[in-house]
Amino acid sequence: MMLSELYYFFFLPGNLPRTFVIAGMLLAVSIACLGFLRLCCCSDDDHTPREMEGLDQVECPKGHALRAFIVPNQTFNCDGCDRKVPAGCAMHGCRPCKHDLCESCVSKRLEALQTDQADSEEANEA
Ligand SMILES: [Zn+2]
Ligand SMILES: [Zn+2]
After folding, report:
1. Higher pLDDT, 45 or 49
2. Parent domain of 80
């Protein structure tokens, strides 16, 4: 198709309604794409707890499952690495025991648990 044909296809007065419909659709699609990208790219630094696979295997010292929450004020410290966790960040903790872990400590424990499991499974097979 020649450029001029393309031009007439879109901009001929009789075609204008269709041109607007197409433009509107393109606009809607790009807005949807942008929204989707925003959701994907910002999942790390927005302030919602990440869902981690196997998270319920990480427990507090008394064996309670940890729950994700958002730090509400400046008084929270991580019981794993002793770092102060600023308000608005995600943590995983056990309220009754006041045992809180930052996300990096939780994922470290999770990794350790999973390696343990893999090891014991291998040991069982051997
Ligand atoms: Zn920590
Ligand atoms: Zn507990």
Report:
1. 49
2. 55-125
